[in-house]
Write a structure and sequence with these properties.
332 residues, mainly alpha, 4 strands
Length: 332
């Protein structure tokens, strides 16, 4: 059962049989092919030739039956500088520390609203509405969109920890892990952000008109969070570490958020920037959420926001599942 990695052949042929109810340990020097043998038996790698079977089922021709009968607990010991190099051993788990990754606690994000209201609010005049009521829709959207970076960072860490390899050996849909990560992040992170922002807004004078409109606005915010979490899922699957995930995530959401109607009306912008600001998803979402909070007509803005949200979700979810599949194939 040989397996080649560029110029390295490891294992260079293995012949073994493990009886039911027994335990077998593989011993040998670094790069002898111990981990690769286990990964072949758990369908994380395909052998170059030969045959391997688990519980009587071939791991190449009948992987579904094997997945129903096995479990995988994978760990990477730092026994050698090359043993767990993901570039050399595609898909191998790596030891990873995210201590240098900047994570902004939800409570520390709250002063953003105070900054715009107390520092800039007196200099910004929005006809027909108090600036705090105008601003809060943009603050909510900014927090929800930026919060999606947690999805990118989390997926990057999952890929490095080996838990994704464990999922790959289980009888589950390829999209299940991604969908679970996105929905969990939306419920956990976005709801916390929205609640804190709402409390801060109420403290500084934000006054939603009615409960129905507020519930509608929060629902739209959560849908927007789902859409951008799928974008961040694509980012997390394509970068190498959490720092890159943060940088790549900000690269798109930062200009979209600040070149929008979040903090000032778009008609106050230069004509070239106004054109961009009025035809992008963040502005569409803000223009729908703001009247929901303030009890204004929404019939012409909510459908536009929903079209953007559905479009982003479909495109990014499809891309994420495709990238996930490519990663799985590359590891074989």
């Amino acid at each position: 059962m040989p397996r080649s990695f560029e110029t390295v052949r490891a294992p260079d042929g293995v012949d073994l049989h493990v009886d039911k109810g027994t335990v077998l340990g593989l011993l040998g020097p670094n790069e002898a092919g111990k981990t690769s043998t286990v990964r072949v038996l758990t369908m994380l790698l395909k052998p170059d030739q030969g045959r391997a079977s688990v519980a009587g089922f071939d791991v190449v021709t009948d992987p579904a039956q094997v997945r129903r009968r096995i479990g995988l607990a994978i760990w990477c010991w730092p026994v050698g500088p090359r043993t767990c190099d993901r570039a050399r051993w595609p898909g191998a788990p790596t030891s990873y520390s995210n201590s240098s990754v900047a994570r902004t606690p939800y409570a520390e994000r709250a002063p953003e609203a105070l900054l715009f209201i107390c520092v800039f609010g007196g200099a910004i005049n929005v006809p027909g509405v108090d600036y705090v009521n105008y601003l809060m829709a943009g603050v909510f959207v900014q927090a929800v969109v930026f919060g999606g970076i947690a999805t990118a960072v989390g997926l990057t860490e999952d890929l490095g920890s080996g838990v994704v390899d464990r999922f790959r050996t289980l009888p589950m849909a390829r999209s299940a892990m991604l969908t679970g990560r996105v929905l969990a992040d939306v419920v956990r992170n976005r709801m916390s952000i929205i609640i804190i922002k709402l409390m801060v807004g109420l403290a500084v004078g934000f006054r939603p008109v009615d409960v129905t409109g507020t519930v509608g606005a929060i629902s739209l915010l959560l849908l927007l969070g789902v859409a951008f979490s799928w974008y961040h899922a694509v980012v997390g699957l394509t970068v190498k570490n959490a720092e890159d995930a943060q940088a790549a995530g900000f690269l798109v959401v930062f200009p979209l958020t600040f070149a929008s109607s979040a903090f000032v009306p778009t008609d106050s912008m230069p004509s070239w920037l106004q054109t961009f600001a009025e035809h992008q998803p963040i502005t569409a979402a803000i223009n729908a959420i703001r009247p929901l909070f303030l009890g204004l007509p929404t019939s012409d803005v909510v459908p536009t926001a929903l079209i953007w949200i559905v479009g982003i979700t479909v495109v990014m979810a499809t891309a994420a599942v495709g990238v996930r599949r490519i990663i799985g194939l590359a590891a074989t």
